[in-house]
Design a protein that fits this description.
Elements: H1 2-11, H2 14-31, H3 37-52, H4 68-80, H5 84-111, H6 115-123, H7 128-136, H8 141-156, H9 160-173, H10 181-189, H11 200-214, H12 219-223, H13 225-230, E1 237-238, H14 252-274, E2 279-280, H15 283-300, E3 304-305, H16 310-323, H17 328-343, H18 354-374, E4 376-377, H19 378-383
Parallel strand pairs: 1-3
Antiparallel strand pairs: 2-4
Helix pairs in contact: 2-6, 3-4, 5-6, 5-7, 5-8, 5-16, 8-9, 9-11, 10-14, 15-16, 15-18, 16-17, 17-18
Length: 384
């Protein structure tokens, strides 16, 4: 009893979590000088090209396979003249902590206690996939994820315009924003978002292209940036243990379209099921649905990379902070994600995909069961 009491006191102490935060910052600082293939092959040459072609004037050239939104950040980094490796990582790390803060603010809506914000800021940046993404690989998945989380935060506060605006900004950075769209589809079907607000998404995307267009790049090139991305890699899956690990890449062209159709049908059918007004959606139900959307869609969508569970990882932490049970579900997803990162290294040919697939499928099944079991019925509410 005494031991449990001491543990509870420690975990409820803000200073404990601030110490964890400081430890995380030290770890990330130590990792700043590490240069990996993602930086050497892609980001560093882009930065050199930007410098050699007049900074913002370089935007007229098709030298990158990201959206212009992230390239604007690289242009600013190149223009300022900071250590490019450090600067690229620090930008992503800043967004990590911002994302963690938003997770805490969402959880605050339930607990009305600032401690949950400190807990989120301590935990999120130390998730294995989060550390590896920004501090090790120099990747930027924290940026679009932050805007997705802001979107979720605002819709849970019934602020439709702000919510869709931020999902539009997220989409302007990464196509992987589509992973959370089933969640927003259900929101629309349940009249939580008016349909016309979704027009903001293409408007924001087009606005994000305008600077590159102004500096001379073809608008048709820019508007098709995501189509070009889908044609960049011809793999059904890249180190990600979803449905397509069992299928040969020789069927890529056929299954790319088929997989997108299956994903669309899944979204429509699940949305139709959940649109029934007999279900009462509580705050916890919406959190569970966001987590479920973030882990199911990468499982059935082709072309997934090892990094595409990033959003599922951070929403898994939100799930546990809010629900306070079933810790095996977010932990299971973290293990799947971490395994994918490890397999992306020299261990690619050694580590089999099968075990991660089984774990992934099990987590999806258990999370779905938990979600359906926790749905509230209007008739039950009335009886109470």
């Amino acid at each position: 009893m005494n031991s449990n009491y001491k543990t509870t006191r420690i975990l409820s102490n803000e200073n404990f979590w601030i110490g964890i935060i400081i430890s995380g910052l030290i770890l990330k600082t130590i990792m700043l000088p590490i240069k990996t293939g993602d930086f050497i092959v892609f980001i560093e040459p882009w930065l050199e090209f930007i410098k050699a072609h007049g900074y913002f004037h370089s935007l007229k050239y098709n030298f990158y396979n990201y959206t212009p939104s992230y390239i604007y950040i690289l242009v600013i980094i190149a223009k300022i003249g900071l250590n490019p490796l450090y600067a690229v990582k620090i930008v992503s790390i800043i967004f990590e902590y911002f994302a963690a803060f938003i997770i805490g603010k969402i959880a605050f809506q339930k607990y009305k206690n600032n401690l949950v914000i400190w807990v989120a800021i301590a935990i999120i940046p130390l998730l294995p996939s989060v550390v590896l993404n920004s501090s090790y690989l120099s990747q930027c998945d924290s940026i679009y994820s932050t805007f997705v989380l802001l979107s979720i935060y605002f819709i849970l506060k019934n602020k439709q315009f702000a919510s869709v605006l931020f999902i539009g900004i997220a989409f302007a950075f990464k196509m992987q924003t589509a992973i959370i769209l089933p969640f927003f589809f259900v929101l629309w079907l349940r009249s939580k978002i008016n349909w016309y607000y979704f027009l903001l998404i293409p408007v924001v995307f087009i606005i994000s292209l305008l600077p590159a267009w102004e500096f001379g790049r073809s608008f048709s090139d820019l508007i098709n940036v995501y189509l070009s991305q889908t044609n960049h890699y011809h793999f059904l899956t890249m180190n990600f243990p979803n449905l397509y690990i069992w299928i040969s890449n020789e069927y890529y062209e056929q299954l790319k379209i088929t997989g997108m159709i299956i994903t669309a049908l899944f979204t429509l059918l699940s949305g139709y099921f959940l649109s029934n007004k007999k279900y009462i959606f509580t705050f916890e139900i919406w959190i569970k649905l966001s987590f479920l959307s973030a882990i199911v869609i990468p499982f059935i969508l082709p072309g997934m990379h090892e990094r595409y569970m990033y959003l599922g990882d951070v929403l898994g932490v939100l799930y546990y902070i809010v629900v306070r049970k079933n810790i095996h579900l977010p932990v299971g997803i973290l293990l799947v994600s971490f395994y994918s990162y490890i397999r992306c290294s020299r261990y690619n040919e050694i580590l089999p995909m099968g075990p991660a697939f089984v774990l992934y499928l099990t987590v999806i099944a258990l999370t779905t069961f938990d979600f359906i079991k926790s749905l509230k019925y209007e008739s039950d509410i009335i009886k109470k």
